[in-house]
Amino acid sequence: MEHFGARFKRFRDVHGWSQEQIGFELNVSKATVSKWESGRAQPRLENLSEIRRLVARYGLSLDYLIDGIGRADGGGRHVAEAPPDYPAAVAGNADEAALLAHFRALKPSRRKGLLALLED
């Protein structure tokens, strides 16, 4: 039977993220993500809240990741399918969608640098 870590890894792989990138999104280390994916550890409650927020942006429920019961979302998409209109679905216009896509492709250190630049 497939466990949380395997479903979480599939979600990460579908979106082309490294363990380091998804760890940055969730404020955990690459090693922590690796332990979750291999089944050597389970996320803490505070981590589950962050995971829920992240996967919900892609139409995936935390329930599906945890126990594999039900559909990935109300529309019947499975975890291996990314919503076709993301990031356009969360952006106000094409420029914002492009900016979001470029930002997500950056390494965590570059993201931090860009955010620091924007705060000035």
Task: State the order of secondary-structure elements, H for helix, E for strand.
Answer: HHHHHHH
Determine the oligomeric state from the structure: single chain
Principal-axis shape equals globular
Strand percent estimate: under 5%
| Secondary structure: helix percent | 55-70%
Q: Write down the CATH class of the largest domain.
A: Mainly Alpha
Q: What structural category do the secondary elements indicate?
A: mainly alpha
Figure out the total of helices: 7
- CA-based gyration radius: 15 Å
Distance between the termini: 50 Å
Fold-level CATH name of the largest domain: 434 Repressor (Amino-terminal Domain)
The poorly predicted ranges are 73-84
Instruction: Give the CATH superfamily of the largest domain.
Output: lambda repressor-like DNA-binding domains
Quickly give the CATH architecture of the largest domain: Orthogonal Bundle
Largest sheet: none
Q: What is the β-strand count?
A: 0
How many domains, in number, for the residues?
Answer: 2
Overall mean pLDDT score? 79
